[in-house]
Design a protein that fits this description.
4 helices, 254 residues, 8-stranded antiparallel β-barrel, 8 strands
């Protein structure tokens, strides 16, 4: 009788171990299936989760469209996403504020690797009692190409920009009143994410600048009047703008 029990034990225990191992393998297959593994391409889904509070299922229609519309490389280095990331950005350049020039800019991502931006800044300060003028405005459109596809988390870009504007500057004996200000050149920059809706952009641009201006002098002998003192022109090759801009990303691509 004892020997029969030992035989049953020898047969049942291996069968129990085998069934247990099969169950573990099946569970592991479900846990580590391709639908549950977060790959570099899943960054688009994680960003959607941060925005909506609900993870997009990788097999859903939205998830598939987001991945198919992505320009992510095979390495997944730049997870891009026309369907997921906000296409609009409002920004302001902190360096311009430091020079007392309030400014605002807007950018729209119209393709996975392309965007268009428009920046405007203005300073309209004057002290007639001290004969000082600091009045200037500029308008700058730009087209940008994003390496590896646009992403508000981290992206490099190069761009082509232009600057047009006007100014009236005086802080001494001679003042300069602008007739025309034109600049065209190239720019490069980098964007890094601060939060789901905020990012920081660093930019540097340079090119060719051409401006003509009238010089004027104040003569107190004839009252508080300014007398024309000739016209001059200046051309310049070099750095024309530097930017450290805080950006608010918003909107959803339809």
């Amino acid at each position: 009788m004892q020997k029969r029990k030992e035989k049953y034990f020898i047969v049942i225990v291996p069968l129990f171990v085998l069934v247990f191992q099969v169950g573990i393998c099946k569970g592991a297959d479900r846990v580590f299936s391709s639908d549950n593994i977060i790959t570099p391409h899943s960054d688009t889904l994680l960003y959607e989760y941060a925005q909506t509070g609900a993870m997009i299922d990788s097999t859903s229609e939205i998830g598939i469209d987001a991945l198919q519309d992505s320009s992510v490389s095979e390495s997944g280095r730049y997870p891009s996403t026309r369907a997921t990331y906000p296409p609009w950005s409002l920004e302001t350049n902190a360096l311009s504020w430091m020079t007392l020039r309030p400014n605002v800019g807007i950018e729209y991502v119209f393709a996975p690797r392309w965007s268009a931006s428009l920046n405007f800044d203005v300073a309209w300060w004057r002290q007639r009692s001290k004969d000082r003028f600091y009045q200037i405005w500029t308008l700058s459109p730009e087209i940008r190409y994003w390496f590896g596809g646009y992403s508000p988390s981290r992206s490099f870009y190069v761009g082509v920009h232009a600057i047009s504007g006007s100014y009236d500057l005086k802080n001494g004996d001679v003042g300069y009143w602008n007739e025309s200000l034109v600049e065209a050149g190239l720019s490069l920059g980098y964007v890094m994410r601060l939060s789901p809706n905020w990012s920081l952009r660093f930019g540097l641009g340079g090119g060719y600048l051409n401006t003509s201006y009238k010089k004027y002098i104040r003569y107190n002998d004839i009252g508080e009047h300014y007398v024309y003192d000739g016209t001059d022109r200046t051309t310049y090759w070099g750095i024309t703008k530097a930017e450290v801009s805080f950006r608010w990303n918003f909107g959803r691509r339809k």
